[in-house]
Amino acid sequence: MNKKYILDESIIPERWYNIAADLPEPPAPPLHPGTLQPAGPDDLAPIFPMGLIAQEATSDRYIAIPDEVRDIYRIWRPTPLVRATNLEKALETPAHIFFKNEGVSPAGSHKANTAVAQAFYNKQAGVKRIATETGAGQWGSALSLACKFFGIDLTVYMVKISYQQKPYRRSMMQLWGAEVYPSPSDRTNAGRAALAEDPDSNGTLGLAISEAIEVAAQDDDCKYSLGSVLNHVLLHQTVIGEEAIAQCEAAGAYPDVIVGCVGGGSSFAGIAFPFLRERIAGTRQTRFLAVEPTACPTITKGQFTYDFGDVAQTTPLLKMHTLGHDFMPAGIHAGGLRYHGMAPLVSHVVNMGLMEAVAVPQTKCFDAAQLFACTEGIIPAPESSHAIKAVIDEALRAKEEGAERNILFNLTGHGLLDLSSYDAYLSGDLRDYDHPEEAIAAAMARLPKIS
Amino acid sequence: MNKKYILDESIIPERWYNIAADLPEPPAPPLHPGTLQPAGPDDLAPIFPMGLIAQEATSDRYIAIPDEVRDIYRIWRPTPLVRATNLEKALETPAHIFFKNEGVSPAGSHKANTAVAQAFYNKQAGVKRIATETGAGQWGSALSLACKFFGIDLTVYMVKISYQQKPYRRSMMQLWGAEVYPSPSDRTNAGRAALAEDPDSNGTLGLAISEAIEVAAQDDDCKYSLGSVLNHVLLHQTVIGEEAIAQCEAAGAYPDVIVGCVGGGSSFAGIAFPFLRERIAGTRQTRFLAVEPTACPTITKGQFTYDFGDVAQTTPLLKMHTLGHDFMPAGIHAGGLRYHGMAPLVSHVVNMGLMEAVAVPQTKCFDAAQLFACTEGIIPAPESSHAIKAVIDEALRAKEEGAERNILFNLTGHGLLDLSSYDAYLSGDLRDYDHPEEAIAAAMARLPKIS
Asked: What was the ipTM of the complex prediction?
């Protein structure tokens, strides 16, 4: 029996899959924050190149992946589909557990899939510099490498708590040539306003986004780049699911349930949407389970409504699950999951009943991560550990029910640059943040009023 | 054209290759440090299990790899053989550069190849605990995971300068269940003696070995394990070269020169010996180039003579290239290359004129590492960067000569847990240690006198 399935470069997809083409109901459009009318390409042109704007709005089912992008994908793709036999044994479960290991990319996560694509389309448009934000640093490091490959300068606003907790990800970005600033910074109006309110602010993804957009909007040669949430980002991530379909076929194990962590939702969309295409077509009955932290329970406790993508209210309004654009999540170690909103496409799919969600506390995730590290050898990113916790619960349920079930999850990244988080865990210094209900209610009260 | 060659599990070797069976002259035997007579199995029995002692002395050409070991190898093997096309372009060289990426193992280096084998034979012998040393932590982390897989307790003495420079490798070992102490420690006679002499000692591998052997020798249930130098360790590493031969064939590119860094010599032996078998058989004319740091130039500046493997003079005497068992190398960032001696088999092969060596300073290695990271995406371990520096020199020489040449090197590990070293490099805080000639002369004067 194989442990890893099909690693031949011939299965690297030649096209990305756009689920919008197959949804029974279309998702609600983004709205211009001033006019409240659907935002058009011109509204996005100051901050994105046209190649990406076109992908944001397209109804084409498939988009060809440029050769230049596929050439770089070949550095780490196809990523392995691995049977977690040792974890199965430890759990004594009849379930078969598979994971797609996106941690093998040079930057250590799935973020490289869209970083390379975004850098390509920016280069094509003659962009000289990109500004972006990053949480735990997974996105910032992936885009640093992609920009280095295409000869584009990069400025990264890194959420301050992660800047402090994950110094190695900063080093990585700098080694690949990026400038990195902790956010909130004193380099932007948005940052200065946040520092004036709270000089010790941990920062949030929403705030770092505001800083990066502000910088990009002020400079004609500079564009902005987002690592999740938007349609084109989810599109690029579908290489994960397309490869997984071919690999699951080789393994003779079509998944009964697919599990992934969700911050902005792009990695989970990436593995899930190609399989969801088959469910929508009626050929399969797969379940989809999104896993979020109890400290930032966007789907399970948020509202499905129009909200801003950032704190400074500069983005178009997106219809999505949200905790409110100025919700400040606790400083959990899964920095990539500390986002108040959710990808509109993921929210829409959840709202149609095609996806479920569950929230889990961080200490249970670290328990799960250590079990995974000690059985399968791989140390997962704290973000990915949320999926592992839910997978273990699913596998134990299968054991109770005596059901032989195929579980597939997305191992979105490795945790080698998160070992300080594991130190905190091993020292007993971690706590959970289970009920941010008051903070959520307060942020919800500040949602924009859109009928 | 493929970027990565054959990743199918069917090429994982079924047997290790023992070069001793094919050498034109046999290597000199180890000597008992008391009697100066060839050391027999009984001399090693207090610290090693019989399965490994038998491999240390065997003249069998091939040793079958146990199924339990191959099952674990399948977590990361076969490792990719990668064509470094982007690096070639950056150098504008007609040379074709290939690397074998051993950094994909869960612990991040080639050390896992022997760690798993050693843990297996110890488990088979009923051993409950292993004591070992580690330099930069590559070996300690690999053995931690291997011991976790086989249910063996582990105590690691980590060279103090690395314990301080690489805190994440300590976290990794602890996550996998090991106890880790900085060496010199106050837990052993050898450690206390070193601290009495210099309370601020950086430590050395030779000293950490003394601590671990002392602990193992005092406890019947505890054995000792070494991550390099010895014949059985080199044997286990030959999976690298055996896979590479199959992959080079698929690439249609038999190497003209094979390059690797050397600390104790096991990773380089691992990639080189299977190819050397073909050179000895007269079918190929491959060159072999071992690369060491100028701060610890064992082959290029040492003597080929009998010496101890450790500071406390507790090991058998080994005939090898040595700088003297109490030579204290400067605190370079490639902690795994700070060893005074060299594997006897590597030394013997060098002495027969079958291998060359070169010494390079660390700042040039970091320059090379950054170029590699920015072209191929992978951040190399500081140890591996020594090979990259020499490969770049070879590729530039090929360019001068207009020669299309196949260069293969061993990327022994990734540098994701060495990013503090890259920080020092990027800040301009690194220096070189080019001429430790007085220190070498002094240590040489204390060599044991063996005719």
From this structure: 0.95
